[in-house]
Amino acid sequence: MYSLRMRATASERHISGAERIVQLKDVQSVVKELADRAVSHENGMPNSIKITLEEITGDIQYIPALPLTSITTRNHEEAVKITTLALTHHAIPQQIAHHAIDLIQEGGAPGGRSMRGAMVMNYESGLRIEPDRERGVRATRMDMSQEAGEELKKNLSAIQLSDRAPMIKEALTLASKVASLGTIAEICISDNLSNHTGYVASEKIGFLRIPHLKEKQVSIGGRIFFVPTTINLEEYIKEVEEKPVIIDQATSTRVISTGEFTEELKRKREGTTTSM
């Protein structure tokens, strides 16, 4: 198996990126697919496209996807409220949750630009601990199996999200890998110009798709990985960036209202439910 990674930039500004794990026979077609994606992205035309091919020599970990919940937020204010509730459910202080949302929308890289990778934040103090604030920590070497991808597409069609399937598949793949590595929670807001959706994800709460989390139609976005104080940062970053993971099972998908989600969290806090 081979890891294929694409990164497209325009004068160091991030345009597009993608990750695949493929068999040797599929390398040529997937390279073309990634190159086509790079030159047709809504965030602009890149002046640099880097595609890296690397043989995977170690073991690949196979894990199921996080269960997916799409919440029917109607506007930005509702989206922020739901995101804050989801983050505080992981014992992340409310002030830090709000700071994280603002930080992503302002741009985490120097000069207020989107980062190439993720910010890493101590979930108790709110301090950023990633070594490079320009590059961040980039989750790589991951993919979803063809069978799991087809099952996910079918599940998304049942909740009227088939048109978003490619983007959701990529986000869910990344979130599922990151959640499996000891991450407390992840928050992400798309940096695609026309995509206003974000998500919160963890093993505790699953993958929460949250429309309207982006306030403005801009190509600024990003993600934050919340981690515990006790984490071995060097080892954590190595696993996020280098551990090969394939999602081999699509799990449940559903749509719920903001009120239903709020009630679920309330019941969970009171101990009347055992899972989301």
Features:
single chain, 276 residues, alpha/beta, 7-stranded mixed sheet, 3-stranded antiparallel sheet, 7 helices, 32% helix, 26% strand
Blueprint of the fold:
Blueprint: E1 2-10, E2 13-22, H1 27-39, E3 48-55, E4 61-64, E5 68-71, H2 76-88, H3 94-106, E6 119-122, E7 142-144, H4 146-158, H5 165-179, E8 185-189, E9 198-202, E10 206-210, E11 222-227, H6 233-242, E12 245-249, E13 253-256, H7 258-269
Parallel strand pairs: 4-12, 5-10, 5-13, 6-11, 7-12
Antiparallel strand pairs: 1-2, 1-3, 8-9, 8-11, 9-10
Helix pairs in contact: 2-3, 2-7
How many DSSP H or I helices?
7
Q: How many structural domains are formed by the residues?
A: 2
How does the helix and strand content classify structurally? alpha/beta
Helix content: 25-40%
Ends distance = 35 Å
Low-confidence stretches: none
> How does the major sheet shape up?
7 strands, mixed
| Oligomeric form | single chain
% residues in beta strands: 25-35%
Q: State the shape.
A: globular
The number of E-state strands comes to 13
Rg for CA atoms:
18 Å
The side-by-side strand order for the widest beta sheet comes to 6-11-8-9-10-5-13
Mean pLDDT over the full residue set:
91
N-to-C series of helices and strands: EEHEEEHHEEHHEEEEHEEH
